[in-house]
Amino acid sequence: MNKIKNRQKTGIFIFPILILLCHTICACSVLDRMNAPSFKEYEYNIKNILGYGPVNHWASQDFEKWLDAQVRNNVNWVTIEFFCWNSQQEDRSHYYENPDDLKKPYQKLVKECRKRNIVLMVSIVNDNKGSGKYGDDRKGLAYYKSQIRRGREIVLEEGPEGVVIQPVAETQTKEGEVFESETIDLAHQKGFKTCWNNNSRPTNSNGCTYFAYHPSSTSDIGVEGGIIVVDHGQILRELSKNGKNVFGPYDPIKVSNYAAKVYTGQRGFVHYGFGDDQVDFDIIKALGSITKK
Description:
By secondary structure, the protein is an alpha/beta fold. Helix content is 42%, strand content 14%. It has an eight-stranded parallel β-barrel, surrounded by five helices. Helix 3 (63-72) runs parallel beside helix 10, helix 6 (145-157) runs parallel beside helix 7 and helix 9 runs parallel beside helix 10.
């Protein structure tokens, strides 16, 4: 009788283990049959890039709520202006003067993006800084040489996994070109993927991993192989609800229609939420809808 009880007890422990092994083997075989690509192969592929970012106000957002919405809607890239170059807050140059104030928010954003397999494209500086556009204070990158290099250190310190560095957006000044060249070299040494955006509308990556193209209207879907980023005053006005306001709010239908046109052209698409002081969940949902058509 004791032998029978012992066998029964042994069976109680062995049976769940057998079930677990069967599930594991079956799951692996299903994945093998599907020939499912790895996260990196999929997320980094140009034709699969679909992104969003409240670029100038990213640091003040609820990252979990924002990124969970992107996951639900298959929006797999985030884009930010590291220094929040055209924040509409009263002290617009605060982060340029105090880059270490961005360290903790950046660390948190990287961590939350990695948890969700979302690629983070970081534009470290924007060479429109100093241009006077949109209320800018006319202090250019050359005025903040040490500070922008400290910001770069913060980005590099967090490592390359899931991060694409765009050293300079819309490179147009001497300091912008110097910083761009330095940063590409450093980023590649540390294993980062990089993005080229010299002069706004490049047609190749010039040694970087990607190139970002900034169209001026929805009639332009850019160049094959590029990431189309709606970072231009004219197209942002066109995509706004009233057709006039560069700061938005942006029209989800207009954005999704343009994104679908770009996406079917085998190009990446990123909505640059230039004036979004809060995450625009309607835009995220609209972007997600194009993958279901």
